[in-house]
Amino acid sequence: MELDLLCSLFEGLPRQGPGDFEHTHKAFRMLSGVPKGAKILDIGCGKGMQTIALAKLCPDCLITAVDIHQPFLDALNENAAAEGFSDRIKTVCASMDDLSFDEGEFDIIWAEGSIFIIGFEKGINYWKKFLKQDGFMMASDLVLFTENPPEELMDFLKICSPDPELCSPKIMTEDEGAEMANKAGFNVWGTFRLPANVWYDSYYNYVKENNKLLREKYRDNKEVLGVVEFNEKEMEVHSRYQKEYGYAYFVIQKN
Ligand SMILES: C[S@@+](CC[C@H](N)C(=O)[O-])C[C@H]1O[C@@H](n2cnc3c(N)ncnc32)[C@H](O)[C@@H]1O
């Protein structure tokens, strides 16, 4: 499916992946020595719930929010204006694997629920050059909580998205993620898991409603109905295996 159409199916949701203010805050609190006027790059920002959260958590930070889907950025610009943050949040429509920022331009790189698109290892290695020395990166990604995951879960995670080309094929454990970060030249400051209930409160409850609307609006469009079915399968798998996998937040510092 064409990426713009795929993204447009998620425009009605308040955010495009699970997460909330509390956990953005928890990760942000783990950063140390954030300088006055710090520059933050928020990659794969979607409609920017975490962008607005960061603007609130860091009242003098300047944020550049990147996404590939312009309508998400339009929504973020509107929200930023409504919150009085237009002078501190700038949006850029670009692909996360082809960014034209300066080396060492940012104090902090933030990627909440988006690094899976290019893969954790590739993402942290590529984005590192845009960070200042000692700069922080926060990337949250899907991880396995067990060394012995059930086969059905692994079969599902291999599919991973309606468009497998878009996502990283391998799911890691938190230890493997930390190892990749060390190898890429980062110190791991800490990791924590997103509780399963946040998936529902912040995301799946809205996905369920959105699916109903999509089924109605696109009743003759097999491709879109395929995405709706995928979303339903994803929620079913999550309800059964949420103890075996979930999101982990990695807070790491460039050394
Ligand atoms: C799972 S959503 C997460 C969005 C947001 N961070 C949140 O937590 O709500 C992933 C986001 O990455 C964007 N995206 C997909 N492919 C991209 C790419 N190649 N470059 C930049 N953004 C991309 C999507 O448009 C979407 O907004």
Structure explained in plain terms:
The chain is an alpha/beta fold and 255 residues long. The chain has a single domain (17-196, 243-254), classed as Vaccinia Virus protein VP39 (Rossmann fold), CATH 3.40.50. It contains nine helices and eight strands. Helix 2 (21-29) packs across helix 3 (49-57) and helix 8 (196-217) packs antiparallel against helix 9 (222-241). The longest helix is centred in the C-terminal third of the chain and has 22 residues, at 196-217. The radius of gyration is 18 Å and the shape is globular. S-adenosylmethionine (SAM) is lined by residues 7, 15-17, 19, 44-46, 49-50, 66-69, 72, 95-96, 112-114, 117.
Which spans of ≥5 residues are poorly predicted at pLDDT below 50? none
The number of helical elements comes to 9
Gross morphology is globular
Structural class: alpha/beta
How many domain regions? 1
CATH topology: Rossmann fold
How many beta strands in the DSSP annotation? Answer: 8
The fraction of residues assigned to DSSP E strands is: 15-25%
Looking at the overall shape, the CATH architecture is 3-Layer(aba) Sandwich
- CATH H-tier superfamily: Vaccinia Virus protein VP39
Strand-and-helix sequence, N→C? HHEHEHEEHEHEHEHHE
> What is the makeup of the main sheet?
8 strands, mixed
If you average the pLDDT, what whole number results? Answer: 94
Helix content: 40-55%
Name of the level-1 CATH class: Alpha Beta
Q: TL;DR?
A:
This protein is α/β, with parallel strands linked by helices and 255 residues long.
Reconstruct the topology from this structure.
Elements: H1 3-8, H2 21-29, E1 39-43, H3 49-57, E2 62-67, H4 70-83, E3 89-93, E4 106-111, H5 120-127, E5 131-144, H6 151-159, E6 172-173, H7 174-183, E7 186-193, H8 196-217, H9 222-241, E8 245-254
Parallel strand pairs: 1-2, 1-4, 2-3, 4-5, 5-6
Antiparallel strand pairs: 5-8, 7-8
Helix pairs in contact: 2-3, 8-9
Bound molecules: S-adenosylmethionine.
S-adenosylmethionine binds next to helix 3 and strand 2.
